[in-house]
């Protein structure tokens, strides 16, 4: 059944004709354990991709370093030739070792090679959107110049290999530096109801019409935070994941979601979150999760001081 009109509304990326349903799909979980190797069930992985598009998803997030090459090849097998409105967003900036390790790949030669790899494995002549994914500090950003790698991507864009550019795992300073080099249509960072370091950044991007794409919508919750989310979910007769996703949609109109799963049932459950409306009193309870998390982080930082 088509639920396109219900997928959280739409958002048009700045300076483009790309209008995306706000709930998309993240392909990372289609690869094997540790985002490495083939899927456990190839037929199910293909079915998930087809079900997502059939349900109105027109925004898929992927990368050639998922697998590596696994998710892009699955996307091509499942969906090529692609629907006219399907936007595939990929990420560059890392390579995988034979031991499943992640290593930076930021030189001009590495980025250029990665663009051609993505084109080949996805079966495209031009990539819709490419995010430069900074390695940062774990799953959080760290300061440092992005001028050299982002300039390389801007040059590849000028050559017609990339339509639009974005950034991932970055700071406001890095975003400003990137915007001085080329237009940025989206930013993808760690953010959820408990981890809200990007609150001000989201509002800043919204003013300029730039999409914000949070990853790990349930990542890094403490037991107390998870309990609070469970209670909110129970009161709404929904799952914690559905509440977390619905809260993100209500947080800001420039928020685009890319929940990932390797299960058709779980995919349908995630898409149903787009229809969930969280009442104001529960929004207040969920907001308290973020405030508690910030206070805990500040307390830990203070304790760590010599």
Oligomeric state of the chains present here: single chain
Total number of helices: 10
Low-confidence region ranges: 1-5, 295-306
- Indicate how many domains the architecture comprises: 1
- Provide the structure class: alpha/beta
Number of E-type strands = 11
Tell me about the largest β-sheet.
7 strands, parallel
Any descriptors?
TIM Barrel, seven-stranded parallel β-sheet, two-stranded antiparallel sheet, 10 helices
Describe the structure in your own words.
The chain has helices spanning 42-54, 70-79, 108-122, 147-158, 172-179, 199-207, 223-235, 240-251, 264-272, 280-304; strands at residues 10-12, 19-21, 25-26, 59-63, 87-92, 94-96, 102-104, 127-133, 162-168, 184-190, 211-215. The protein is α/β, with parallel strands linked by helices. It has a seven-stranded parallel sheet with strand order 3-4-5-8-9-10-11, with helices on one face. A two-stranded antiparallel sheet has the order 1-2. Strands 6-7 form a two-stranded antiparallel sheet. Helix 2 (70-79) links the parallel strand 4 and strand 5. The chain is globular, with a radius of gyration of 19 Å. The relative contact order is 0.13. The model is unreliable at 1-5 and 295-306 (pLDDT under 50).
């Amino acid at each position: 059944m088509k639920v396109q009109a219900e997928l959280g509304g739409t958002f048009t990326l700045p300076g483009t004709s790309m209008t995306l349903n706000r709930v998309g799909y993240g392909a990372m979980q289609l690869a094997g354990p540790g985002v490495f190797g083939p899927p456990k069930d190839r037929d199910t992985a293909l079915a998930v991709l087809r079900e997502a598009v059939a349900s109105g998803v027109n925004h898929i997030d992927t990368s050639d370093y998922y697998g590596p090459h696994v998710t892009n090849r699955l996307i091509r097998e499942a969906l090529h030739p692609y629907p006219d409105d399907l936007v595939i967003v990929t990420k560059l900036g890392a390579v995988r070792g034979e031991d499943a390790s992640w290593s930076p790949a930021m030189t001009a030669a590495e980025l250029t090679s990665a663009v051609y790899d993505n084109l080949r494995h996805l079966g495209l002549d031009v990539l819709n959107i490419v995010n430069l994914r900074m390695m940062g500090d774990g799953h959080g950003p760290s300061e440092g110049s992005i001028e050299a790698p982002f300039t390389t991507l801007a040059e590849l864009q000028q050559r017609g290999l990339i339509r639009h550019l974005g950034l991932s795992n970055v700071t406001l300073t890095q975003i400003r530096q990137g915007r001085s080099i080329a237009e940025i249509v989206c930013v993808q960072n760690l953010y959820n109801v408990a981890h809200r370091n990007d609150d001000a950044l989201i509002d800043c991007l919204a003013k300029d019409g730039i999409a914000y794409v949070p990853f790990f919508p349930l990542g890094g919750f403490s037991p107390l935070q998870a309990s609070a989310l469970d209670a909110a979910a129970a009161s709404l007769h929904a799952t914690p994941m559905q509440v977390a996703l619905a809260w993100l949609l209500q947080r800001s109109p420039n928020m685009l979601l890319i929940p990932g799963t390797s299960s058709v049932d779980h995919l349908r459950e995630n898409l149903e979150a787009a229809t969930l409306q969280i009442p104001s009193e529960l929004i207040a309870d969920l907001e308290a999760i973020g405030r508690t998390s910030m206070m805990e982080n500040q307390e830990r930082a203070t304790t760590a001081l010599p």
